[in-house]
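QA checklist item 7 of 12: single-chain prediction sanity check.
[x] sequence parsed
[x] length recorded as 267
[x] structure emitted
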Amino acid sequence: MIIYLYGPDSYRRREKINEYVERYKEKYSASSEVFYLDKSEDWERFKNFCKSMSLFEASKLGVVFDYSNLDKKELKEFISLIKENLENKDITLILNSDKKPTKDFSFLLKTPVISHSFENLEGTELNKFLDSEIKKRNIEMDAKSKEMLLAGCGKNLCNLILELDKLSLLNEKKIDIKILEKHIDLLPEIDVFSQLNKIRTSYSVGEKLGFLEDLLRRGADPAMIFNISAASPYLTKEQKVKMADYDVAIKSGKLEYNEVLLSMMLE
C-alpha cells in the first residue's frame, strides 16, 4: 500500500505521518523504518526493504523522504519499486514531498494510492488552526497579539507552534501585546519592539528611516512592524485613528505595507 503526502505545509504533513505511524504501532506492535534517499546507504536499505520479506514479519511500514534527489537511473528504479507495491498489503510506504507530483509521479494521485495534500493555510483556515493550538495550550491571546504572531511567523506552522510553545511556558495565561513586549526574547525574527521604541522617541526623520531600514534588512516582516505599531499602548487618539485608516487602506489594496511604513516615518 502507498500513502502519498505532499504540499509545502511540512508541519501538518509531519502530523499526518505521526498519525499513520501510531496507528501502525497499535495494530502490529512493531516499529517503522525511515529512509532519507539522498543518502546512498538509505537508498540501498530502501531497495532491500521493498524486495525482502521475513517469515516473522506480518507487515512492514516505511517512511520515505528526499526521493526527488535520486539521479535519473535511481529515480526510474524507485518508481518501479513503488508501482510493484501499489497493492501489496504486506508493505506500506509513506512517501513525502513538499511539491506537487511531476508527470512521472502522477499515478500517486490515483487509486489505489491514498493521497493527502497539505497546502499552506491562509485566512480563515489559518486563524482556526491558531485558535485550536492556543486552546490546546490553555492560554488566551487577544486579537492584536494573534495578528502580530501570524505576521511574524507567516505561513510557517512549525515556527508558529514553536512560538506558542514558548508562550505557554510563561506564568501569564492571558497574552496581549504588553506581555509579548515584556518577553521580547520569545518573539520570532528580531527585536522589533526595541527598534520601534527608538523610532517612536526619535525626532529625526533620517534616524527613523535608518531604524526602519535596519529592521527590514535584518528580516523583519513589514506586516509585523505595522501590526505592532498599530497596537502600541503609546498611541494618541489621533494616531489610533490614523493607524485604523492605514489598516483599511492596506486591506482594501490601496496601499502596501512598505508604503504605509514609509509614510509613518515621514509624519
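[x] summary fact logged: The chain has a mean pLDDT of 87.
[ ] second reviewer sign-off
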